[in-house]
Amino acid sequence: MKNIIKINFLIFIGLILFANTERIKEKMYDDVIGSGCFRRFNGTHQFGCSSNFFGSSGVLHSISSKADLDFILENPRSAPYVAVLTPYLFTKENVLRIRDEGGKSVSGIVLINNVEQMTHFSGESKCPNQYSSIKEQSCDENRPDSLWNPLGSGLLLEDFKFPIYYVSDNDTIDKILNCFSRFNNYDKENQASRSLCSIEITTPMAGAGNSEICLRRSKPSVVLYPTKYCEPLEGSSIFATLFPREHTDDLNSDSIDAKEKFILLSTRIDTASMFEGLGLGAMDSLVSFATLLSIGHVLSKILEEKNLSPNRKNFNVLFMFFNGESFDYIGSQRLVYDLQKLSFPRNHHRRPISMDQISFMIDIGTLDDLSNIKVITAKPVPQANTLLQLLNSYNRQFNISFDSMETFNLPPTSAQSFLRENLSFPVAILNSKPTNKFYHSIYDDAYNIKYKYYNKSELYNFNELMNSKKAADLFNGDSIQMKIRNISSVVAFALYEMLTDSTYHDNEDKYANPILIDEFLYCFLESADCPLFKAASHPNSLPALPVPPSRYISVYRAYQDTAIWTYRLLGYLMSTKQKISKENCTILPLHWFSGYNNTGECRLTTQNTTKAISPAFADPDYDWKSGKYSSWTESTWTMFSARIYVRPSRIHETLVLSFGFIVLILSFVTVYLVNGKSETLFENIPVSSTSTEPAAC
To answer: What architecture is domain 234-613?
Structure first.
C-alpha cells in the first residue's frame, strides 16, 4: 500500500514539474511568422534551401553594410550567426558570399520586408527557361541587349544548405530588430561573454540530389511502405472554345475531323518565387492572363452566332490557359505531347485535335509595356503579317504601337514548346520589351502595376461590354484597367475580321469592359472573396478566403485554386446564356451560375481542364539528362516555423552544465546512502498492534 502511495506521489510531482517545464519553454521562445524557401529539383540538379532536421539555430545579426557581413564571415565571435538582410542587400553577390564563405559560421538568412533603397528584386535568371527553349535561342547573359529578364539574379536556380526565411509582418520585423538591438548590437568583440538574441528556423526538406534520384528513392519497390521524398510539379491547364464543338458518343475514337481548324490563343496562369505561398506575378503573367480572358469575353459577345466567312466556316478559336510555364513550359509541353498522341481533349465526348489542325497560334507573353507591343515570329508567318495589319487598323483611337520582329531570340513563352517541335509552326508572340524589375519575385504585386481598385461592379454589370464614354468616365485613361481594355479590344476586333472577313462595325460603341478587368485584378491581387468569383460560382457556395489565390503550380496534393477559379471564369464569361430553369440546367455543358448580383442563370459552357504535368513522368525509361522535357519536382516537408529566443553566454552554459553534474553526483550519493539505511528510514510498521483470534464455531 505504501509503495502505491509513493508511486502516485512521484507521478503527481512529475506532472507538476512537466507542466511548469512546458510553461517555461513557452516563455523562452517567441514565434516568428513568415514563409520559408524550399527545395526543388530538375533532372540534374537541386535548387532552393533546407534547414537541419531539427532546425538551424544562430545568433541574429542585422546586415546594413559590408562591414557587418565581414564581421560574421571573417571575424565571428559567437558563431553560428543568422544574417538579417533587407531586399536591397539580398543580392546575388552577398547571398552567394554567405553561402560560399560562411561555412559553419552562418546557419541561415532572414529576409525582412524593408523596401527602402530597393530598386529591383528578381530571383529568376536573366534568360528564363533558357535550356527548354528552341535550340536556336540566342538569349545570352553576356549580351545585355538579348536578355528577357535583365535584372535577374538567378538565386532561384542556386542551392543553399541553410534556410532562408522571409518575414513581411511589420510587428514581427520590429520584434526581431529590437531583440537584436537590445542583446547583440553593442560590444561585438565580446559577444561570447553574454547572452545573445538568436533564432531557430525549421524548414527541413526530405528530398535531395535531383528528380531522378529523389523519385527512385520514393518508389514502392524500395520499401514496403514508401516515403515520398519529392513529387512532380503538376496541375491543370484550362481551355475553352469560342463555339461549342460537335458532340460524339464514340469515346474510343482517335480519328480527327480534318476539316475542323483552330486559331489557338494562349497565355500562362502561373508564376514563381523563392518562398512558399508568396508571389502574385502581377506584371510577369497576371496582366497577360487578364488580357486573354478579356479577349475571349469580347469575342464571345460579338460572335455569339457563328457567322463566319464561307472559307472559315469550320474554324473555331481555342483558348488555352497554360499552367506550369514558369518551370520549363510544363503545360504547353504536355499539350504538344497530347496533340501528337491524339489524346487532347481527354474523353470529353469530342473528337481529338492534332497539331495540323491549328492554322495559327497567337501567344500572349509578358506585357510590361502595354503601349508598345511587338508581334514576334521565328520565321516568316503570313498570318502574323495579316494580324499586324489588322491590329494597326483597329488601333487608331487607342494609340498603341504595334511592330513586327523576326528573331530566334524569342521571349520565354508557351510558343517555345510548339517551335521546338517545328520551327516553321505558324505562331506569333505578342510581347513587349522587358521592363519588369520584380519578375518572379515576392514584390511583383499590385503596386508594381500601379493597380487601384475602382469597385464599380455594384453599379454596372461586368459581364457586358461597355462603350468608350462610360469607360472614360469611370476610369483614368492611364490606369492598368484601361490599358488592358484597349489592347484586348484591338486584338478581339482583329480576330473578328480574321474569322469573318468583314470589318467590325459596332454602332453601339462597345468594347472590352474595364470593370471586368478591375474585378479580375482585385480577385487575384487582393482577395478571392470578390464579386467576380461569386458570380462565377454556384449559388449558395461558401465564400472564398479573403486572400489572393496561389498561382504557383505546386504538386498534385496541393489545392489548385487558380486553376479552379480559371475554370469557373471561362465557364461564366465565355459562354452563352440559356433560357432554362435551374431544375433543368444540371447536365454539362449546361451550368448554373450565381451570375451578376446573384440572380442565377443557366449557361452553355465550353471550358474544360487538361493535364499540366511533364511528359517525362509518363515515360518510365525517360533519360533525365536529355533535357527533352521539363523534369521539375518539389521536395516534401513536414513544417515551416521560426522562433527567436535568448541564447545564454558560454560561461552561463558552462556553469549550468557544471551545476547539473554536481546535482547528479549528489543525487547518486544521496540515493546510495538512503538505500543503505532504507531498513531504518522506512521501517515496516504493522497496520494494527493487536491481533484477533478467530472466533469458535
So the answer is: 3-Layer(aba) Sandwich (3.40)
